């Protein structure tokens, strides 16, 4: 008994040390493996979402906001008329050149202070007829005025077909941009907005008339490229007039202007470049980052899984060789012990000794059990390919029963009808033999075992029913697990091997109580799976 238990403990420790449970696809292992893979892919997907979110909500907005060194220069041309004095007549129309110059002069957190100058000059003399200097505090991220949070200094990408409150150096205060429709500029679709500003004080723009109050009525049209928020074209007309005691006294200046063809071409080209960049940063780059993250994550998961499987397969191969060697090393001494016991038994018959006879019989039983367990381990370790063939159910039952010693007080009831089975006769015979042997051991002194065969269109159903007390309910979920046994002399390999053989046939095996019934489903169309 010591040798037997020591051997079994060695085998169990080897299996435990190498975590052999994870190498066999029982339901718990499959579920655990599936959960691990799902957990790994969940981590990869979460990391991917974080990477894409960081790019989309942190990196991209950094590129879209106004830079600390923001500058902008735009040219306009048109016609203008102006008086020599506040009560004089308007001059003949002359060509007007307008320049808008903007430059960031300071930054405080996200607030950018922008100096803006609009200068109007006569093209023929170079005389400055209009100049307006303003400073604006603008939020770099939202492009809203910090002191007028409802008014917009510029457009962010994604302009909508709606009205906007707008305050820009080209447009005076208290102005609303009214959406007018869509238009085309150099193959780009643009949104057209109109705005008017009435009775706006522009006295500071006319230093030569500094002692007088001058108001302006202006009408402007803006063409905005919606993807980038860039202004591609601008037109404006104005009527500046002298006001005394709240009354319109005399027109001081009257004219119109629009962006030059050169400025418009530069703005259009810049917008096209920005569209490409925005498409790259908002569409292509997130897809690229997601693909790289998911791809690398999947490769790492597969690599890890393959490495684990390869390592465990190597361990299992090593374990199989080690187990076979241990079994072989134990088998030879057992043969010697068995031979010596046979000789001692013969000698004991010549000189009878009751105590010695009992010792010899006890040793013989122990040796037989150890041989049985070693044979079970060797059958488990050796890989047996399936050899498919057609045979009758009667032939299968005969193959199973010929290796079993059936007690006289136990009856085996076999089916009267025959069924054709496709599979490996030897290995299916081992399955049936193991289950019947377990039933015999469970029945005890007397009882019966019924073997039933049912021929269905897709399956042959084999049922083995015994009259024993049944299997404890707590053991039912574990009965097919590797190394699980309730017998002191069991190896925990028999029913696990039965399950493996049946699954290699593409079938299934299950057990239930009341009465204890093992049910095997064997498909009629076999596919080799081992």
Describe what you observe in this structure:
It is built from 7 helices and 17 strands. The chain has helices at residues 2-17, 27-64, 261-350, 354-381, 393-401, 425-443, 494-504; strands at 71-82, 94-108, 111-122, 128-139, 164-168, 171-185, 188-201, 213-225, 230-244, 247-259, 389-392, 410-413, 420-423, 447-455, 459-466, 508-512, 517-523. By secondary structure, it is an alpha+beta fold. The chain is 40% helix and 32% strand. Strand 2 (94-108) and strand 3 form a beta hairpin. It folds into 3 domains: 2-49 and 285-381, no CATH class; 68-259; 389-523, Histidine kinase-like ATPase, C-terminal domain (Heat Shock Protein 90, 2-Layer Sandwich).
Looking at this protein, list some descriptive labels.
five-stranded mixed sheet; disordered N terminus; alpha+beta; Heat Shock Protein 90; 7 helices; ten-stranded antiparallel sheet; 530 residues
